[in-house]
Amino acid sequence: MGEILRFPGQQPHRAPEAPEPLWRELVGREIHRERLQRGERLLDVAQRAGVSVQYLSEVERGRKDPSSEMLQAISGALDLGVGELATRAARPQALALAA
């Protein structure tokens, strides 16, 4: 293969930094952490929130981007307000764990 030639003044390519986590991943991790801390099963929380176990599992894994109504139902099932959930998900510790 040939040699890569750079334009004059062009900086060498640096390895990309890890991408910032998506909001749904941060929220999902926090929901998962809270559920485990409370010692509850997916089924328990899903039933109280009025969602399927599969849906709650996908939210916890950051695969689903829940609507504000779904977040309210899920956080309410964990005795949290949506604001509290958002605050916890945005705290520096949550961001560090996601990296």
From TrEMBL:
Pfam families: HTH_3 (PF01381). Residues 31-85 form the HTH cro/C1-type domain. One of its GO terms (molecular function) is DNA binding. Gene3D superfamilies: lambda repressor-like DNA-binding domains. InterPro entries: Cro/C1-type_HTH, Lambda_DNA-bd_dom_sf. This is Transcriptional regulator with XRE-family HTH domain.
